[in-house]
Amino acid sequence: MxxxxxxxxxxxxxxxxxxxxxxxxxxxxxxxxxxxxxxGERGRAEATVLHYVPAEKVxxxxxxxxxRTDRKRREAAWDAAGERVAGLLRExxxxxxxxxxxxxxxxxxxxxxxxxxxxxxxVTVETVPGITAMQDLAxxxxxxxxxxxxxxxxxxxxxxxAVLKEALAGPGTVxxxxxxxxxxxxxxxxxVTGRLDDAVWGSAxxxxxxxxRSAAExxxxxxxxxxxxxxxxxxxxxxxxxx
Length: 243
Prior knowledge:
The protein has about 240 residues and is of the alpha/beta class. It is built from seven helices and ten strands. The strands form two sheets. The chain has a five-stranded parallel sheet, with helices on both faces. It has a five-stranded mixed sheet with strand order 6-7-10-8-9, sandwiched between helices. Helix 6 links the parallel strand 6 (about 150-155) and strand 7 (about 175). The termini are far apart.
């Protein structure tokens, strides 16, 4: 029996932002896997999926998503998750894996697909794109991500604040992911590069505790881990000035 693993992007948290193709993929799969932390609480992906498929179709798989220091423990969790999904593929044939945002942008689906590909020879791996946090934040805040010939740089601040500072010193819009615990350093970098006043940040987009604010309000207090920042460049010359 041929098997199919589909990574489905379910957006940043607002269930209305799942695409029609994403909903169809979730409903067509025999099983929908959702990643959960080893602490067991329901994550955004699971909460979003349950708007579209019955709970009995959902399988929760631990990925130790809150583990950032112990590489061996993290990789052991990935291996265990891969084994679990491989078993589901052998039993059921088609599995959808729901991931927040997009499955090809900083997603655990990447690691899962690599592991499953080794365990299940011949498995077909597909992805369904999803709305990203930067797109949702741009829509909710009114920030324009790019104009004309401007580049767009996406930086995970978990890579270190130096990477963000280098990006902010360049041209175009800079988007920072996962910067909440380093909010003070991020605010300082924005101030030094003259981008503080035009930048916005957001967290829990589309959820009850959503927050969308000016970066100038950041006072160094840590923010939610999955906070997103948009720092546009200075734009002069009027309409079409960057063409």
